[in-house]
Automatic annotation (TrEMBL):
Its cofactor is Mn(2+). CDD domains: XendoU. It comes from Sinanodonta woodiana. SUPFAM superfamilies: EndoU-like, Somatomedin B domain. This is Uridylate-specific endoribonuclease. PANTHER family: ENDORIBONUCLEASE-RELATED, PLACENTAL PROTEIN 11-RELATED. InterPro entries: ENDOU, EndoU-like, EndoU_C, SMB_chordata, Somatomedin_B-like_dom_sf, Somatomedin_B_dom.
Length: 354
């Protein structure tokens, strides 16, 4: 066989070898999508239904065997917890081996349990609103606001620079206030039930310290709101305090206590009443620091721990989607958003969809 014939044979065999590998995960587990191949070998292939036939067999961790409910693991090619349904990166045997996504009935049951356990919630006689007047809150029982979790939240409200795009920094004393607030709300029955639900459903490991770290990451660790911007925001700042984008946009502010205090202090002017629905949910329009927001829904009279418990569960169970459940026999929908350009999971926003 001459040299040309031998080279032709070598090229043909290499081509066949490459073609065979293009249908296999040999040496390719976890690599990014590659159009040069006929099939893929990463967690996204589960979503797009283009995994190679030997993906489960060859890629370590491509199964939910002994992994159901474990937290997100970046070393594994696919995941085995309820958020994987939203992200489309579940292992192929997730449905057959694991519990699957939390049902509306299960979610409604825990939300109702939280509502029933919210002993710090104000009674109807503790506050009065006037939807046709110039002020929304005409009376709030100040004694009710002296409860420990309320005072803990109020201490945090002035710790933030509400301007998006301006670097956020918390002082040592402000971080201590965050720790005190977390310790206070985590000691409530509402948060104990929240932890039990999340742990039993596999959204977090069964550890109170992990739960505390999760709440810290969700709500208080700072992040850049823009992917190429400065560290200027957090879940707590956006949802519970509110933010201003430039001179035209109010963002967030989905907490009744902040609304009441800012209205009382003259920083917020009630504009009009849009929607009110049970249980105790309202969506007013208002001006904040001279900038109008046409609708900002929030619970009325609820405790800080209740609001943060409901939003936290929705953010972990239904990431970047609608969290639907029944509360007090009324349908409730909460939209959640994640900060996609930062690893882990932080609350970008969580609010009533009305």
């Amino acid at each position: 066989m001459d040299v040309h014939a031998r080279l032709s044979l070598v090229f043909m065999l290499c081509g066949l070898f490459k073609e065979g590998l293009s249908d296999s995960c040999i040496g390719r587990c976890g690599e990014g999508a590659n159009k040069a191949y006929n099939c893929q070998c990463n967690s996204a292939c589960v979503r797009y239904n283009d995994c190679c036939s030997d993906y489960d067999a060859l890629c370590p961790g491509a199964t939910c065997s002994r992994r159901c409910g474990q937290s997100h693991d970046t070393t594994k090619p696919c995941q085995c917890n309820a958020p994987c349904v939203t992200y489309g990166d579940c292992c192929s045997d997730y449905q057959s081996l694991c519990q699957g996504q939390t049902t509306v009935d299960a979610l409604s049951a825990v939300m109702q349990d939280l509502w029933n356990s919210d002993t710090n919630r104000l009674s109807d006689s503790d506050y009065t609103i006037n939807t046709t007047g110039s002020r929304l809150f005409t009376y709030v029982n100040q004694t009710a606001l002296n409860k420990t979790t309320f005072q803990g939240l109020i201490c945090l409200l002035d710790n933030y620079n509400i301007r998006v795009g301006q670097t956020e920094q918390l002082t040592t004393s402000e971080l201590a206030e965050v720790d005190d607030f977390l310790n206070t709300i985590l000691a409530t029955a509402v948060m104990t039930k929240t932890f039990n639900f999340l742990a039993e459903s596999g959204y977090i490991t069964n550890s109170t310290s992990v739960f505390r770290d999760t709440m810290m990451e969700l709500w208080f660790n700072l992040y850049p709101r823009s992917s190429n911007g400065t560290t200027d925001s957090s879940g707590f700042e956006h949802v519970m305090v509110g933010e201003l984008k430039g001179t035209k946009t109010v963002s967030g502010l989905h907490n009744w206590i902040q609304f009441y205090l800012e209205e009382k202090n003259g920083n917020l002017q009630y504009a009009s009443f849009l929607i009110r629905k049970e249980p105790n949910i309202i969506a007013p329009a208002f001006f904040w620091h001279g900038i109008k927001k046409t609708k900002s829904p929030f619970f009325l009279g609820t405790s800080p721990e209740f609001d943060m418990a409901v939003y936290s569960i929705c953010c972990l169970v239904y990431r970047d989607s609608l969290c639907k459940f029944t509360l007090q026999n009324q349908a409730v929908s909460i939209q959640t958003w994640d900060i996609v350009h930062k690893s882990g999971y932080q609350v970008a926003s969580a609010y009533h969809k009305m």
